[in-house]
Amino acid sequence: MIKIDLHIHGAPWENDWAAYRRSVWHAWRAGCEYIGISEHGPRFNHRAPYRSLYFCEFDRYFNTLDEIKLEFEGAAEVLTGFELDYNEWMVEHYRDLLPELPLDFVIGSVHTVKDWVMGVDGSFEESSLSGLDSAGVYEAYFEELMNAARTGLFDFIAHPDLVKRYLLRLGFANPANPAPIYQRAVEMLRACEVGIEINTRGLLTAAGEYYPNDDFLRECARAEIPLTIGSDSHDMVSAGLGVAEAVAHAWRIGFRQIHIWRKRERIALNI
Ligand SMILES: [Zn+2]
Ligand SMILES: [Zn+2]
Fold first, then answer.
1. CATH number at residue 207
2. What is the pLDDT of residues 63-88, one digit of tens each?
3. Residue 50 Cα, ligand 2 centroid: separation in angstroms?
4. Which ligand has an atom closest to residue 109 CA?
5. Rg (CA), the chain
6. Cα–ligand 1 centroid distance for 211 (angstroms)
7. Total domains, the chain
8. In which domain, by residue range, is 73 found?
9. Cis (ω within 30 of 0) for the bond into 12?
10. pTM for the complete prediction?
């Protein structure tokens, strides 16, 4: 069964730049044939600093990945990506920037919903969402996801139901009937020709399951949304972790292909 990992971070702001080579090596050792590095692009969000590259680091990033590509030639194909936050204020920057960059693929992510930065404790209480209940928060998150798809800037959306992890942290249950939200979101993905991933990192968090959950995945399989697989590794050794199981899971859900992107062009691979 084919193994790919299109969601890997080196996180040089907390590791060092050798983390990219080490991550690729770990993914290759785990048997991955296609290995995508997808560092967090600039966020310009003072509420979540130290978690992304700056513009001034771009040359170093792309040069580093070019060398790693050469190093692994014939062993695995290394693909150059970015994970970019969807934020209203960043869309125009991205629109100018992306055509200039030597990227194979671009991941769109929702880590903030309006002024709520999901990974930052206390941010929800201070945000304009603080009066909402679980269903309201869930819906607001998926609205942002649909806004991200609508931009047409991204090849696929990362960890599509990431919000479940933060609902738990806030003491909220998942909403009782998310099906209509899923249907709307998947319809939008299809209309905008945007893919999703199975993100295995969900298994390692309090969420205890893949992002997204099986109900959302089934809806995607029915709508033939392009699918890829990512570990979302930030620590080198997790690169390529669990991707074989994720591909088997995709098959059980009903997918028969997974995807990579090369120079922003989608390529289907049979499972
Ligand atoms: Zn992410
Ligand atoms: Zn990520």
1. 3.20.20.140
2. 999 999 999 999 999 999 999 999 88
3. 14
4. 1
5. 17
6. 11
7. 1
8. 4-270
9. no
10. 0.95
